[in-house]
């Protein structure tokens, strides 16, 4: 795929009584393979990668800080893509969007 310019991955997440600091998730090892693939020779035209999490909050928990949760998730996503995060060739965005309450 010499002409793949932009990749956008969006994951949906439903909040289930977790702390807003969201300890390091046990993500599959596939993230590092994606990082390597996107920054390697397979996609020479790739200029932008966006990885997002849409966090759906089903109830309003006053003790739960959604902003801190999304900041934590965003930082962890960036950490899963070290090559993309430091690439001069590819613009990389990792973010968490609050959806619902």
Mean pLDDT: 78
- The percentage helix is 25-40%
Give the spatial strand order of the biggest sheet: 1-2-3
Number of helices: 3
Measured distance between first and last alpha carbons: 40 Å
What is the SS-derived class? alpha/beta
Largest sheet, in brief, is: 3 strands, parallel
Tell me the series of helices and strands, N- to C-terminal. Answer: EHEHHE
CA gyration radius, whole angstroms: 15 Å
- Unreliable sequence segments: none
Total number of beta strands: 3
Percent of residues in beta strands: 25-35%
Shape: elongated
Comma- or semicolon-separated keywords:
three-stranded parallel β-sheet; 3 strands; 29% strand; alpha/beta; 101 residues
Describe the structure.
This protein is α/β, with parallel strands linked by helices and 101 residues long. Helices cover 29% and strands 29% of the residues. The protein has three helices and three strands, in the order E-H-E-H-H-E. The chain has a three-stranded parallel beta sheet with strand order 1-2-3, covered by helices on one side. Helix 1 links the parallel strand 1 and strand 2. The longest helix has 15 residues, at 66-80. The N and C termini lie far apart (40 Å). The relative contact order is 0.28.
Give the SSE layout.
Blueprint: E1 6-14, H1 30-39, E2 48-57, H2 66-80, H3 82-85, E3 91-100
Parallel strand pairs: 1-2, 2-3
What's this entry about, in short?
This protein is of the alpha/beta class. 29% of the residues lie in helices and 29% in strands. α1 (30-39) links the parallel β1 and β2 (48-57).
């Amino acid at each position: 795929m010499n002409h793949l310019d932009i990749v956008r991955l969006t994951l949906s997440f439903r909040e289930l009584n977790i702390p807003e600091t969201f300890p390091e998730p046990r993500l599959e090892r596939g993230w590092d393979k994606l990082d390597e693939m996107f920054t390697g020779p397979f996609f020479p035209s790739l200029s932008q990668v966006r990885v997002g999490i849409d966090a759906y909050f089903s109830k309003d928990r006053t003790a739960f800080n959604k902003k801190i949760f999304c900041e934590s998730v965003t930082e962890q996503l960036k950490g899963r893509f070290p090559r993309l995060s430091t690439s001069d060739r590819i613009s990389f965005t990792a973010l968490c969007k609050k959806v619902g309450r």
